[in-house]
Amino acid sequence: MNENKKTLTRAEAEEYASWFKALADATRIQIVSLLAWRRAPMNVGEIVAASGVGQSTVSHHLKILAEARFVLVERQGTSSLYRINDNCVSCFPTAADVVMGNPAPIAPTCE
Asked: What is the CB-side half-sphere exposure of residue 77 using CA atoms within 13 A?
């Protein structure tokens, strides 16, 4: 093993683990894909209609995706609009490379 090669710090590993955990469900991947392709905020009802998944299930998964910061929430009165967090989505493909030991020019922050 190359001793000069950078290894992940514990904080970096935990950040990446939270990303992978957030995407470790087919429904969450479906929601992220929908929001990424739509490129416009959507409410829960619109996501339910587009995904074919029940409202409580969609709400549960949106909460997890928001905690991982893949999805941003905008409150409008009594409803919420959800949109993809472009900063996270642009960093994610490189995360797998970093974890597997391939150098990447990103820091594991998803703001």
From this structure: 2
Question: At residue 74, does pLDDT exceed 90?
Answer: yes
Q: Which sequence spans correspond to the domains of the chain? A: 10-99
The model carries a pTM of 0.77
Question: How many whole angstroms separate alpha carbon 63 and alpha carbon 35?
Answer: 14
84-102 tens-digit pLDDT = 998 876 666 566 666 666 6
- Domain 10-99: which topology? Arc Repressor Mutant, subunit A (1.10.10)
- How far apart are alpha carbons 15 and 42 in whole angstroms? 26
